[in-house]
Amino acid sequence: MNEKQKTTRATKVKKQKLALREQIWGKVDESRLWDRTKNDGYTTLPRTFPLLAQIMDDLADKGKPVFQTYLTLWCRVFDESFIEIKNPTQLASESGFASQRAITTWNGRMAKLAELGFIGVEAGPLGNYQYVLIYNPYLLIKEFNEKGKVQKGKYLALFARAQEVGAKDLE
């Protein structure tokens, strides 16, 4: 499919969605909706993120989920897949850790994400996780699946959803 065909298809789908939305909710005050083309402060997420989250947490230690920490990192990254962390306390808080052990817990989750290979880390003058590289989670989950470490049903759900949204990373 060339770019013109993609644009035509996207426009058609958008019109269909808007017609259905209007049928259900009537005229909607557009100023009350989030529009990524008009609002700042957004990031791009794979449409499969909920499935990626489940698999990542399954790969982590029992009772020590990593996805919320990963999501916090993802929400700070731009297209170069690199983050410089200047305030680990803030990231620990955004990851949901608020007790006196917040930094310790966050450090543990960061270590696990690095051990699993979802991120690359380098220490700097501000801490062990000052520099972070985000790797493609699809590729890592595909590798874990090939080693038999991902539940078959979850991997199939991820694969099917990736196909549905046009993601080719798992092929």
Mean pLDDT: 94
> How large, in whole angstroms, is the Cα Rg?
19 Å
Biggest sheet statistics: 3 strands, antiparallel
Helix content: 40-55%
Order of helices and strands: HHHEHHEEHH
Count of separate DSSP helical elements: 7
CATH C-level class of the largest domain: Mainly Alpha
In total, the number of domains comes to: 2
Q: What is the architecture of the largest domain at the second tier of CATH?
A: Orthogonal Bundle
Q: Look up the CATH topology of the largest domain.
A: Arc Repressor Mutant, subunit A
Number of strands: 3
User: How much of the residues is beta strand, in percent?
Assistant: 5-15%
Strand order of the largest sheet: 1-3-2
Which structural class fits the helix and strand makeup?
Answer: mainly alpha
- Spans where pLDDT lies below 50 across 5 or more residues: none
Explain what this protein looks like in three dimensions.
The chain is mainly α. The protein has two domains: 3-31; 49-165, Arc Repressor Mutant, subunit A. It has seven helices and three strands; from the N terminus they run αααβααββαα. It has a three-stranded antiparallel beta sheet, covered by helices on one side. A hairpin with a 2-residue loop joins strand 2 (119-124) and strand 3 (127-134). Helix 2 (49-59) packs antiparallel against helix 7. The longest helix is centred in the first third of the chain and has 23 residues, at 3-25. The relative contact order is 0.12.
Give a brief rundown of this model.
With 171 residues, this protein is mostly helical. It contains seven helices and three strands. It is 51% helix and 10% strand.
